[in-house]
Amino acid sequence: xxxxxxxxxxxxxxxxxxxxxxxxxxxxxxxxxxxxxxxxxxxxxxxxxxxxxxxxxxxxxxxxxxxxxxxxxxxxxxxxxxxxxxxxxxxxxxxxxxx
Length: 99
Ligand SMILES: [Ca+2]
Prior knowledge:
By secondary structure, the protein is an alpha+beta fold. The chain folds into two domains: 7-46, no CATH class; 57-96, no CATH class. The protein has two helices and five strands; from the N terminus they run βββββαα. It has helices at residues 57-69, 84-96; strands at residues 7-9, 15-17, 21-28, 31-36, 42-46. The strands form two sheets. A three-stranded antiparallel sheet has the order 3-4-5, with no helix packed on it. Strand 3 (21-28) and strand 4 form a beta hairpin. The structure holds calcium ion (CA). The site of calcium ion has 8 residues, from helix 2.
């Protein structure tokens, strides 16, 4: 699991901070487009999956290790803190098979 960054580059090469996203739409392959809330921007997200595309025990152990070592990858909700909300969010996503 790799967290999304908190910034992106626009079509003019200018960096901007990505805030809340919604309206996620698959546009083909591993590419998705989301609407950045309270703005006039669309953000493209490129996603890749493991060979089987499913969450598995290796993903679970990778998250647990990241959680207990305080790695940024464990900040599932992206609020800058690693806490039980992240663990709960991860477990919910893991149960759905999509982390
Ligand atoms: Ca967090």
